[in-house]
Specification:
CATH architecture of the largest domain: 2-Layer Sandwich
Structural class: alpha/beta
CATH class of the largest domain: Alpha Beta
Largest sheet: 9 strands, mixed
Number of domains: 2
Radius of gyration: 19 Å
CATH topology of the largest domain: Dihydrodipicolinate Reductase, domain 2
Shape: globular
Number of helices: 9
Distance between the termini: 38 Å
Number of strands: 15
Length: 316
């Protein structure tokens, strides 16, 4: 198996590191030539199409700014190249339609990097909920992002290139887990605001999302990064999830030891290694990867509905 990475910024470097350790990395691509200097033993490119056409990798990992995900995914799938795309899968309904159509036509597999589904606390809760009906759930994401953070990439903080703010970037994983654990809601109702980055970004830094299955509060205006929390009520049980911890009715559960070393930023967690391992294991066995285009599209549809809402219910 030969794999290439498109985009070697923060998250792309993590993907390249994992692939390199596994002996799979065959080429990298980035429009910023300065980022390519560390890959001296590999073919490097500034044009992703040229890299795909010349190297003919079995798979590509797409780790570029949000607005580029769809076009790159479609290009690779149209050439029979497997794709593992970082979140979000895309940032508009038109892009979503084009990606899902390309996946349908292609002989190759599409995977979406929603790595928090592989965290040990998520695996435990998913199994615990088998045969149980969830009554309701809440999620809270309270993180700190500064003007300097948004200035670190020209694409950040803009509707056309990031596709939104805290919802589509920082809180997408939590929204995905709420849908994964509690089921996809029938509607979304949301309000958006800008509490600390007005004049710095076009998009929201704070959002409240209400559905018939869960609520989510997300903000980038906290004074420091707080642990993400998910609480789920099922019958008489109250389940609380935090990084590395699960409480059921206040009692800590044995969720097992960490199997993968966390890489990159602390907020990434340790799920990337497990997800990438599973992606390639299933490719090798000819099995379907569970987080395909349809699964990746679920959180995108909820987010696009939230951006459309304006305080009104939007059906999914």
């Amino acid at each position: 198996m030969r794999s290439a990475v498109i985009g070697v910024g923060n998250i792309g470097t993590l993907h390249a590191s994992i692939l390199s350790r596994c002996g799979l990395l065959c080429a990298v691509c980035d429009t910023d030539e300065k980022k390519l200097g560390v890959y001296k033993d590999l073919p490097v490119y500034t044009d992703y199409k040229k890299m795909i056409d010349e190297q003919k990798p079995d798979s590509v990992h797409i780790c570029t700014p949000h607005y580029l995900h769809a076009e790159m995914t479609v290009y690779a799938l149209n050439r029979g190249v497997n794709v593992l795309c970082e979140k979000p899968l895309c940032i508009s309904y038109d892009q979503l339609e084009s990606v899902l159509e390309a996946e349908k036509r292609s002989s190759a597999a599409l995977g979406v990097c929603l790595q928090n589904r592989y965290n040990r606390e998520t695996v435990f809760v998913k199994k615990y909920l088998e045969g149980r009906k969830t009554d309701f759930a809440t999620g809270v994401v309270a993180w700190h992002r500064t003007a300097e953070y948004y200035a670190s990439g020209e694409w950040r903080g803009k509707w056309a290139t990031e596709g939104g703010g805290v919802l589509i970037n920082q809180a997408l994983h939590t929204l995905d887990l709420l849908g994964y654990l509690c089921g996809t809601p029938s509607y979304v109702c949301s309000t958006l605001g800008n509490l600390s980055l007005r004049g710095v970004i076009e998009v929201e830094d704070t959002a409240t999302v209400a559905t018939d299955r869960f609520t989510l509060f997300a903000t980038n205006s906290a004074l420091t990064d707080m642990p993400v929390e998910i609480s789920i009520r099922t019958g008489r049980d109250l389940i609380k999830m935090m990084p590395g911890t699960v409480l059921v009715n206040g009692e800590a559960q044995d969720i097992g030891e960490e199997k993968f070393i966390p890489l990159g930023k602390e907020c990434y967690g340790s799920g990337h290694g497990a997800l990438i391992a599973d992606f390639y294991d299933r490719l090798g066995k000819g099995e379907k990867f569970p987080i395909d285009g349809a699964e990746g599209a679920s959180s995108v549809r909820m987010i696009l509905a939230a951006y459309k809402s304006g305080g009104e219910k939007v059906k999914l």
